[in-house]
User: Which sequence fits this backbone?
Protein backbone atom coordinates (compact mmCIF):
# COMPACT_ATOMS: atom_id res chain seq x y z
CA UNK A 1 0.00 0.00 0.00
CA UNK A 2 1.45 3.33 -1.00
CA UNK A 3 1.57 6.50 1.05
CA UNK A 4 -1.54 7.80 -0.73
CA UNK A 5 -3.56 4.74 0.37
CA UNK A 6 -2.42 5.01 3.99
CA UNK A 7 -3.22 8.73 4.07
CA UNK A 8 -6.69 8.14 2.63
CA UNK A 9 -7.40 5.42 5.20
CA UNK A 10 -6.19 7.66 8.00
CA UNK A 11 -8.47 10.49 6.85
CA UNK A 12 -11.43 8.13 6.56
CA UNK A 13 -10.81 6.78 10.10
CA UNK A 14 -10.78 10.33 11.49
CA UNK A 15 -14.09 11.03 9.75
CA UNK A 16 -15.58 7.84 11.21
CA UNK A 17 -14.35 8.72 14.70
CA UNK A 18 -15.69 12.28 14.48
CA UNK A 19 -19.09 11.16 13.15
CA UNK A 20 -19.43 8.36 15.71
CA UNK A 21 -18.60 10.68 18.59
CA UNK A 22 -21.04 13.34 17.38
CA UNK A 23 -23.89 10.84 16.87
CA UNK A 24 -23.29 9.09 20.19
CA UNK A 25 -23.23 12.36 22.14
CA UNK A 26 -26.39 13.51 20.39
CA UNK A 27 -28.11 10.22 21.27
CA UNK A 28 -26.81 10.32 24.84
CA UNK A 29 -28.31 13.79 25.24
CA UNK A 30 -31.66 12.60 23.86
CA UNK A 31 -31.66 9.59 26.19
CA UNK A 32 -30.85 11.79 29.20
CA UNK A 33 -33.62 14.22 28.26
CA UNK A 34 -36.07 11.34 27.94
CA UNK A 35 -35.10 9.83 31.30
CA UNK A 36 -35.29 13.20 33.07
CA UNK A 37 -38.76 13.79 31.61
CA UNK A 38 -39.95 10.36 32.75
CA UNK A 39 -38.47 10.85 36.24
CA UNK A 40 -40.17 14.25 36.58
CA UNK A 41 -43.50 12.65 35.66
CA UNK A 42 -43.04 10.05 38.42
CA UNK A 43 -41.72 12.41 41.09
CA UNK A 44 -44.11 13.30 43.89
CA UNK A 45 -45.31 16.88 43.82
CA UNK A 46 -46.24 19.38 46.47
CA UNK A 47 -44.79 22.74 45.48
CA UNK A 48 -42.96 21.62 42.33
CA UNK A 49 -39.56 22.20 43.93
CA UNK A 50 -38.52 18.55 43.61
CA UNK A 51 -39.58 18.27 39.97
CA UNK A 52 -37.93 21.53 38.98
CA UNK A 53 -34.68 20.59 40.73
CA UNK A 54 -34.06 17.79 38.23
CA UNK A 55 -31.18 18.59 35.87
CA UNK A 56 -28.69 16.88 33.60
CA UNK A 57 -25.02 17.32 34.36
CA UNK A 58 -22.94 17.06 31.22
CA UNK A 59 -19.31 16.06 31.43
CA UNK A 60 -16.92 15.15 28.70
CA UNK A 61 -13.36 14.76 27.61
CA UNK A 62 -11.73 13.35 24.54
CA UNK A 63 -12.14 9.79 25.84
CA UNK A 64 -15.16 9.91 28.14
CA UNK A 65 -18.57 11.55 27.93
CA UNK A 66 -21.19 11.23 30.66
CA UNK A 67 -24.62 12.50 31.53
CA UNK A 68 -25.81 12.39 35.13
CA UNK A 69 -29.37 13.15 36.15
CA UNK A 70 -29.64 14.76 39.56
CA UNK A 71 -32.45 16.10 41.69
CA UNK A 72 -31.05 18.73 44.03
CA UNK A 73 -34.06 19.60 46.19
CA UNK A 74 -33.24 19.08 49.87
CA UNK A 75 -35.78 16.25 50.15
CA UNK A 76 -34.96 14.52 46.83
CA UNK A 77 -33.07 11.55 48.28
CA UNK A 78 -35.71 10.99 50.97
CA UNK A 79 -38.52 11.05 48.39
CA UNK A 80 -36.60 8.70 46.11
CA UNK A 81 -35.66 6.14 48.78
CA UNK A 82 -38.23 6.22 51.60
CA UNK A 83 -41.73 4.82 51.81
CA UNK A 84 -44.43 7.47 52.32
CA UNK A 85 -48.04 8.37 51.59
CA UNK A 86 -48.62 10.58 48.58
CA UNK A 87 -50.14 13.99 49.15
CA UNK A 88 -53.25 15.31 47.39
CA UNK A 89 -51.43 16.74 44.35
CA UNK A 90 -49.25 13.66 43.80
CA UNK A 91 -52.28 11.39 44.16
CA UNK A 92 -53.85 13.00 41.08
CA UNK A 93 -50.77 12.60 38.88
CA UNK A 94 -50.38 9.67 36.50
CA UNK A 95 -47.63 8.33 34.30
CA UNK A 96 -47.34 5.54 31.73
CA UNK A 97 -44.16 4.48 33.59
CA UNK A 98 -45.99 3.38 36.73
CA UNK A 99 -46.99 4.75 40.10
CA UNK A 100 -45.94 8.18 41.29
CA UNK A 101 -43.43 8.36 44.11
CA UNK A 102 -40.62 6.19 45.40
CA UNK A 103 -37.73 5.33 43.02
CA UNK A 104 -38.96 7.95 40.52
CA UNK A 105 -35.56 8.01 38.75
CA UNK A 106 -34.46 4.40 39.14
CA UNK A 107 -37.67 2.79 37.88
CA UNK A 108 -37.81 4.51 34.46
CA UNK A 109 -34.10 3.88 33.94
CA UNK A 110 -34.53 0.17 34.64
CA UNK A 111 -37.61 0.00 32.40
CA UNK A 112 -35.99 1.78 29.44
CA UNK A 113 -32.26 1.05 29.71
CA UNK A 114 -32.35 -1.56 26.94
CA UNK A 115 -33.94 1.00 24.61
CA UNK A 116 -31.27 3.53 25.56
CA UNK A 117 -28.48 1.02 24.89
CA UNK A 118 -30.02 0.07 21.52
CA UNK A 119 -30.32 3.72 20.54
CA UNK A 120 -26.58 4.17 21.22
CA UNK A 121 -25.86 1.27 18.87
CA UNK A 122 -28.14 2.83 16.26
CA UNK A 123 -26.18 6.08 16.65
CA UNK A 124 -22.94 4.25 15.81
CA UNK A 125 -24.60 2.63 12.80
CA UNK A 126 -25.79 6.06 11.58
CA UNK A 127 -22.29 7.43 11.98
CA UNK A 128 -20.79 4.59 9.95
CA UNK A 129 -23.33 5.07 7.16
CA UNK A 130 -22.60 8.80 7.09
CA UNK A 131 -18.87 8.16 7.04
CA UNK A 132 -19.05 5.86 4.04
CA UNK A 133 -20.84 8.30 1.76
Assistant:
Amino acid sequence: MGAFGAAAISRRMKIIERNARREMIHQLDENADDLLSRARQLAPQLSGELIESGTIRKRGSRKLVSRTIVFTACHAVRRHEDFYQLGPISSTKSSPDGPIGRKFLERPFEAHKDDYYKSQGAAVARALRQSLR
Notes: The helical segments are 3-42, 49-52, 76-81, 88-92, 106-131. The radius of gyration is 20 Å. The longest strand covers residues 54-60.
